[in-house]
């Protein structure tokens, strides 16, 4: 036996009408929601899918909840229909009818068996039903349906959102992967022969596994709150997809770099040959200059000049062989390194030439200074000064003799400069004395 608990004072006619209107509106909302859930694309997909993992267990529970939701809704409909029929008996219900209506609308008069089905209704105290397991009021029944509906809808909405977001994107990425693989194979980027070829194989496996997991267990790819607890707070988890997309983009750039090598390899090889040729010519010039310095400059430390860059020429030959045999994936990194090292070799050759010719530059600078002092001597009318002539001749013999002692020559130039300065100072003093006598 199940007896409804007291529901307090009886409702007035107006209160009963308002309660019926509210419960009727709730009934329509629940019915619309259940029908929408029944027709939801996500639910239909779930029913026909071969599910795994978390989605499989949660969908099994959600299916059971949906079945119970309809049973509860039937019980709710029956109770509401009984209440409406009772209210429709007369325009002004009696006090007994209002008490009975109050019990129907507020009392725990809906009995449900263990499976959620409603075997009968108790319209008032003392009502008996068979196989009673639980008694609920209309509001309690509604609250329970709302909770179960939210749980079932979460599963359906999440699965639909993940399936709408990820499989199509995975398929697009797989199509891009196939195009990249085709290009990669055309330039020799293959598994086992090039790291990017191995990366493509890994990405292919990851996308295959990822798609199967997304289709079988979409709920495992949801991040954030559930749709019912925080609308808009959750989203499909695209972490693995994003990682695969970034990896494919890296490979695509690598393949494009190899393609670029294929298109302009000959021009780049010619530029490398030209740079190395210029480096060779500069080194030859440096060797010749070194020999000249050693023969013309005495007591000077002249750095040795290295030979031609044999290793670079060997790499250049290997690069040309890769180009002839279309081994673009091997040519690409080799050519980039060759270009850099060839420029470094040219710079080193130029520095070597500068280093070995430094003594000649010093000699040329001293010759220029000597000539400049001589011109200054002539301008000041001191060309016939015997001391200046003697010191000029001494410096000139040192600078124009071979081998030239730069230290001694620089000292001789300094003595000539000093003598000139003294002669100029003496001439200035004599002119000053003459002016004072005249005055």
UniProtKB/TrEMBL annotation:
Coiled coil: 248-296
Top-level taxonomic group: Bacteria
UniProt KW keywords: Coiled coil
Protein's name according to its UniProt entry: Uncharacterized protein
Originating species: Streptomyces klenkii
